[in-house]
Amino acid sequence: MTQPIVKVSNLTYYYPEEKEPVLRDIDLEIEPGEFVLLVGPSGCGKSTLGLCLNGIIPNVLGGAIKGRVLIDGVDTRKSTVYELGTKIGIVFQDPDSQLCNLSVEDEVAFGPANLMMDRQEVMSRIDKSLKDVGESEIKSKLIFEISGGQKQRVAIASILAMEPKVVLFDEPTANLDPLGAVQIFALMKALNREKGITIIVIEHNVDSVMSHADRLVLMEDGAIKFNGPPRKLMQERGRFIIDTLGLRIPQVSELALGMKDKGIELSPFPLTVEEAVEGFDRHKGRLEFLPQVRDSAEAEPRKAMVHTDRLSFVYPDGTHAVKDVSLTITEGDVVGIVGKNGSGKTTLTSLLVGLHKPSSGQATVCGLDIGRATTREISGEVGYVFQYPEHQFVETSVSKEVAFSLKAQKLPAKEVGEKVDRVLRLLGLEKLTEKHPYRLSMGQKRRLSVAAMLILSTDMMILDEPTTGQDRRNIENIMEIMLEAKGRGTTIVLITHDMNLVFKYCNRIMVMNEGELVFFGSKAEFCRDFSTIRSSALVLPEVFKLTRLLAERGIPHVPQAYTVEEFMQSTRVR
Q1: Distances (CA, A) of 78 to 68, 85, 477, 512
Q2: Is there a contact between 246 and 474 (Cβ–Cβ < 8 Å)?
Q3: CA-to-CA dists, residue 58 to 10, 67, 83, 221, 317, angstroms
Q4: How far apart are CA 468 and CA 444, in angstroms?
Q5: Alpha helix locations (H) across 427-556?
Q6: Which class does domain 1-80+166-172+184-249 fall in?
Q7: What's the pLDDT tens digit per position in 171-224?
Q8: Res 236: pLDDT
């Protein structure tokens, strides 16, 4: 019998100066060659457990630790992070946080060179690892010249060059476009199946990765709640995972749970769209689809909140990031801006809030000319949440961060306190008031950045990747708050890679590609024109793909559903 390549025994861990443990009595064994998916609510200790596996905890971050972690038989507390580099590698969600060289070649060479390998071996490993991730052609490029998806693959290549037996991916697709995420998950599968590398993935958005996993580990409040085969856990514990733990499961698995409530059991319990199609096809004689009721178009024309006319922006290095964008966003719209990494989404919105001035063209936002108005004037009308929360934190505690803008307005202390308490409760941060923003989990940082913007009650809100690092419950909470603001007439603009989020909450979709606006319209128009939209990075929701494939099987009156809720509302069982 083989020995576990990862063995965690009775692991409990306290961060420095913290009274409560973030990990509690963790026991976990992973066999060589396994593909393990680790999920859990935001802030439950997933990333902390990952840092324990390669010795960063406690060797770098300190804190109090009990129990043992063995990686390929090596005790992490008796080894250095450096020595563990050939045993286990970690790929973080933000590749920029771990890339430390100017060129791709130097980045991939960094690990082997620091292990004092001879030049020929280093060069061989560079070529091999770049080939393994499908990026051989960018070997001579500089890091700043490549896309976000390519940066993530270079980060993976730099880990593979060390030839570790285990690779841990901590939300590696959080900042990638939808197609890039699918490609990274496919790469993980290939590394696991073809190279025999043990893969551990920490992830919230599980649609594209669940079917690859041999085992699913679910954490809650610093402890392991469930541990077993993904299909079995989805079938037996799926409702608990959604309703109690507040996590995402694949859309088709959620559909299967709903159909079971209606009296139809899909077999095998689906983890992929293809499996769901076969399951539904076996029961097609019992299915009846009802006419859909869609929201009608606005009867009255609404006030324009954003109007741009051939808006363009060129960076000092000559990069034409926004090219002749003309559009109108009206009051109460919820607009999803999508497109591949580097397509100009963030640059466009930074123009709208005055962080950059246009190179040419014109735009008005909330009645202000962005070419003339100051950033301060625009910020009084438009709330903006940055893609990376750390870029906007200025205070030393959560409560002070949220109160900062209100104090700047010289509001009474009692009013400030009441508003801060309300917003922190809305976003589930009320127990973290005294924590430093930089000591929060990534999901908690994101919610804090939303809270700091939400408290201003502006006429328009622009959020750049607001749901990154969030579990299902927090995503729904954030979006319900946004919809409440919409009900008061607030216009919402979301930059996101989450197509499920777009189809559930947005009434308009914008697609950016190489700085150009290549589509702006409704969800129905997006699906109709999908094959002709000039963007290589988009995917359709699993539910929509399922309805299209069922219609191709000849099942009559299949609804054009975008979400699980829409599909279930339109489906009756005879």
Answers
A1: 10, 14, 43, 50
A2: yes
A3: 15, 12, 15, 20, 43
A4: 10
A5: 442-454, 472-487, 499-505, 523-529, 542-552
A6: alpha beta
A7: 888 777 888 788 888 889 999 999 899 999 999 889 889 999 999 999 999 999
A8: 96
Q: Give me the pLDDT at residue 438, please.
A: 86
**Helix and strand totals (H; E) in the chain:** 20, 22
Domain-by-domain residue ranges, the chain?
Answer: 1-80+166-172+184-249, 88-163, 263-282+543-573, 304-540
CA-to-CA separations, 39 to 32, 244, 382, in angstroms, rounded: 20, 14, 35
Residue with tokens 């127990």: 431
Strand 223-228 relative to strand 287-289: parallel, antiparallel, unpaired?
unpaired
CA nearest 219: which of 476, 68, 23? 23
Mean pLDDT of the chain: 90
- What does the alpha-carbon distance between residue 156 and residue 172 come to, in Å, rounded to a whole number? 10
300 vs 463 pLDDT, higher one: 463
Give pLDDT, residue 479. Answer: 87
> Among the CATH numbers 1.10.275.10, 3.75.10.10, 1.20.120.1200, 3.40.50.300, which is that of 304-540?
3.40.50.300
The whole-number pLDDT of residue 298 equals: 53
User: How do residues 292-349 score in pLDDT, each as one tens digit?
Assistant: 766 555 556 689 999 999 999 999 888 899 999 999 999 999 999 999 878 899 899 9
The two tokens of residue 340 are: 């591949």
**12-30 pLDDT per residue, tens:** 999 998 889 999 999 999 9
Put the strands of the sheet holding 215-220 in their side by side order: 88-91, 166-170, 198-202, 35-39, 215-220, 223-228
CB 257 within 8 A of CB 545: no
Please state which of the ranges 51-60, 292-301, 539-548 shows the lowest mean pLDDT.
292-301
Q: At 339, phi and psi to the nearest 5?
A: 150, 170
Q: Which residues of 218-231 are buried (b: 16+ CB within 10 A; e: fewer)?
A: bbbebbbbbbeebb
List the one residue out of 496, 477, 505 whose CA is nearest residue 539: 496
- Residue 542, φ and ψ in degrees, nearest 5: -55, -40
Please answer whether residues 522 and 336 qualify as being in contact, where contact means their C-beta atoms are separated by less than 8 angstroms. no
Instruction: Round to whole Å and give the CA distance between 6 and 405.
Output: 47
Amino acid 293: pLDDT = 64
Band of residue 83 on the pLDDT scale cut at 50, 70, 90: confident
Structure tokens at 26: 């963790």
What pTM, to 2 d.p., does this model score?
0.85
Residue with tokens 């809305």: 426
Equal CATH topology for 1-80+166-172+184-249 and 304-540: yes
Residue 1 has pLDDT above 70, yes or no: no
Tokens standing for residue 238? 């799926």
Tokens for 530? 């999908």
Cα(first)–Cα(last) distance of the chain, in Å? Answer: 51
Q: DSSP assignment, residue 429?
A: -
Q: Which amino acid would we find at residue 533? A: I
Show the tokens assigned to 244: 């109690």
Torsion from C-alpha of 475, 476, 481, 486, nearest 10 degrees: 100
Question: How many residues are recorded in the chain?
Answer: 574
